[in-house]
Amino acid sequence: MDEDSVINDISQRRYNPLTDSWVLVxxxxxxxxxxxxxxxxxxxxxxxxxxxxxxxxxxxRAEGAKxxxxxxxYVFMNDFAALKEEQxxxxxxxxxxxxxxxxxxxxxxxxxxxxxxxxxxxxxxLAQMPPKDIEPVIRTWQxxxxxxxxxxxxxxxxxxxxxxxxxxxxxxxxHGQVWMSSLVPEExxxxxxxxxxxxxxxxxxxxxxxxxxxxxxKQRVVFENDAFIxxxxxxxxxxxxxxxxxxxxxxxxxxxxxxxxxxxAQIISQVTVRYDNxxxxxxxxxxxxxxxxxxxxxxxxxxxxxxxxxxxxxRSATVRKFLVGFExxxxxxxxxxxxxxxxxxxxxxxxxxxDE
Length: 356
Description:
Helices cover 27% and strands 17% of the residues. It is α+β, with helices and mostly antiparallel strands and 356 residues long. It has a domain of 178 residues: HIT-like (HIT family, subunit A, 2-Layer Sandwich), CATH 3.30.428. A hairpin with a 3-residue loop joins strand 7 and strand 8. Helix 3 packs across helix 6. The chain is globular and about 60 Å long.
């Protein structure tokens, strides 16, 4: 039997070099009958403009500010920011025992939070926007990242999008967020440590090596162009998880050339369109970009820009993957192999199902 036939039929665990952790893969479990919660697929149609939407052009937001009559991307400070730019100083009590001081640690975190409207059109998503209209979104990410670098009290710039009510998105208007923080969060910190560990052990850069090998093997490639590659990573946790990365080691989004911005826009379009086509619905996901820290005191010798897509749908528009039980108490687990998931996404049309 060839390797694919074996690995698509055995229980196994796979190593995630980006976080130095493992994921359990149980492909035979995908055959089990489903009698659990059924989601309602998002096949709703929305108007190009919604007078009640807080994010549409010219509308007044919940806190009273009025949106500009914007024609492309639009950025504003989050009215309900998770991080404050200024707050009272905090000093921990001095009368604690060493044990109490260790067990009850608290560090103040400050920062800035932005909302980015991808389009003035209320009825669109990234999957329905042509690549040329995604390019301004990427350029906006570049501008905000550069701002984060210029701020002395900011160490990390997290760009992300939650799409769909299933992922906790409170407004269907196409938008994402940026949270700048004074500390580097745990997930990017773990990845950064793993990238440096790999370089110290092998003398080469992890994600450059990984992109080259995946491009050669083709087993897990969803789409690729001259500058970027999108794969279902070998260590994926979510059923149709996708990792997008530039072939060359680009430390930060602001380092992308205009041609690479265009290539990035194309690959984002390709991935999101295929997601929608998978189950003929507006496919929910959380997407985030990891890249070099914005703290000038931290080097970028091993950082490599990349984008994660974490979508929850498992086998249809109504069945989702829950991270519960073993996943919460032991290690992540998935029911289809990365190879099967990539093969499914790869064969889908790159024309949005609503346009076919």
